[in-house]
From TrEMBL, chain A:
UniProt similarity note: Belongs to the CPA3 antiporters (TC 2.A.63) subunit F family.
Membrane topology: Multi-pass membrane protein
Transmembrane parts of this sequence: 6-24, 36-56, 62-84
UniProt-recorded Gene Ontology molecular function terms: sodium:proton antiporter activity
UniProt xrefs under NCBIfam families: PRK12599.1-2
Record keywords, A-Z: Antiport, Cell membrane, Ion transport, Membrane, Transmembrane, Transmembrane helix, Transport
Species annotation: Gillisia mitskevichiae
Protein name: Multisubunit sodium/proton antiporter MrpF subunit
From TrEMBL, chain B:
PANTHER family: ANTIPORTER SUBUNIT MNHG2-RELATED
Name of the protein described by the UniProt record: Multisubunit sodium/proton antiporter MrpG subunit
Domain of life (superkingdom): Bacteria
Molecular function GO labels: sodium:proton antiporter activity
Membrane-crossing segments per the record: 6-25, 37-55, 61-83
Pfam families, alphabetized: PhaG_MnhG_YufB
Sorted UniProt keywords: Membrane, Transmembrane, Transmembrane helix
Coiled-coil spans in chain: none
Length: 90, 139
């Protein structure tokens, strides 16, 4: 089994299953906080997916996208928590 | 040889992310979910990115990967803390079997005040002081 086959048949399916499990929590989530955590974790899993995909296709330039995605995930979480607190004050 | 290392690192990273997602479903409380996801997902992403760095074996890619890992290590605890704080203030309840709540009584809901001492205890002390002042005045 080559590395290409290993990543294609084992690593990316595990990541896909975990994204589906997180999506279940995102759709079900009792409170809005659970949804925000699930969204954050989906983006973080996306960074891992990009890393696996860059190994798969032998193109390291995808890692730039991962960097931007990490930045956007952090900014999104901070903005969501800010607006939750703001909504609470009214 | 490097292929074996890449396989081990990427598989363990994927398994850690899977564990984080299972924890997100199984945990009973949003605070426990925050704690699970920030820890396990950070380790999983770090391992997957390390696998990419080992696979390419290029200086520029290794520095890029280390920058991403450092950024995630810095921002994951901050975002977890912010979300936990916002969820406590918005009134998300703890799990019924949680043993202790450190913030209990230190946050006043109407005035949005957060103090290191107990707010209710301070109010009681204020009342006692006022009573003492009244007694002195009446004497």
């Amino acid at each position: 089994m080559t590395l290409h086959e290993f990543i294609f048949y084992i690593v990316t399916p595990i990541l896909s299953i975990s994204v589906l499990l997180i999506l279940y929590r995102f759709l079900k989530g009792p409170s809005i906080v659970d949804r925000i955590i699930a969204l954050d974790l989906i983006i973080t899993t996306g960074i891992g997916f990009i890393a696996a995909y860059s190994i798969l296709t032998n193109r390291p330039s995808f890692l730039d996208v991962a960097m931007i995605l990490a930045l956007i995930a952090f900014l999104g979480t901070v903005a969501f928590s800010y607006y939750i607190q703001k909504r609470n004050k009214k | 040889m490097t292929d074996i290392f890449v396989a081990i690192f990427s598989l363990s990273g994927a398994i850690f992310i899977l564990l984080a997602s299972i924890g997100l479903i199984r945990m009973p409380d949003s605070y426990l979910r925050i704690s699970v996801t920030t820890k396990a997902a950070t380790l999983g992403i770090g391992l997957l990115l390390l696998a990419a760095a080992i696979h390419f074996q290029d200086f520029s890619i290794t520095t890029r990967v280390l920058a991403i890992i450092l950024f995630i290590l810095l921002t994951a605890p901050i975002s977890g803390h912010l979300i936990g704080r916002a969820s406590y203030f918005s009134g998300v309840k703890l799990w019924k079997h949680s043993i202790m709540d450190d913030m209990d009584g230190k946050y006043h809901k109407a005035t949005q005040e957060l103090k290191s001492e107990d707010v209710e205890e301070l109010k009681k002390l204020d009342k006692i002081e006022k009573k003492l002042v009244k007694k002195k005045n009446s004497k």
